[in-house]
């Protein structure tokens, strides 16, 4: 019975560890210009994704300029429809 519980817990932990969102970093107070902004994402590896977690003062439409970014191991290039300050979870 104990071995069954251990196996179940091990499988549960593997599922949690496999979630790419957990291996990330919160960038606070990132100032996005209207147009392109390049950000050091500080992951020291290729970025898997990003999520804006907070807009401060103003909102904007933001998208990633993947084709313009030749250094995805350290940089995230975003385009914003307006100037805004945001917090971004990068993973």
Would you give an account of this structure?
- 18% of the residues lie in helices and 41% in strands.
- The protein is of the alpha+beta class and 91 residues long.
- A 3-stranded antiparallel beta sheet has the order 1-6-3, with no helix packed on it. Strands 2-5-4 form a 3-stranded antiparallel beta sheet, with no helix packed on it.
- The mean pLDDT is 92.
Determine the strand fraction and express it as a percent band: 35-45%
State the helical fraction.
10-25%
- The outline comes out as elongated
Discrete helix count: 1
**Radius of gyration, whole Å:** 17 Å
Entry summary:
The chain has 91 residues and is an alpha+beta fold. Helices cover 18% and strands 41% of the residues. The N and C termini lie far apart (38 Å).
List the helices and strands and how they pair.
Blueprint: H1 2-17, E1 25-32, E2 35-40, E3 50-56, E4 62-64, E5 75-80, E6 84-90
Antiparallel strand pairs: 1-6, 2-5, 3-6, 4-5
Give the tags.
1 helix, 91 residues, three-stranded antiparallel β-sheet
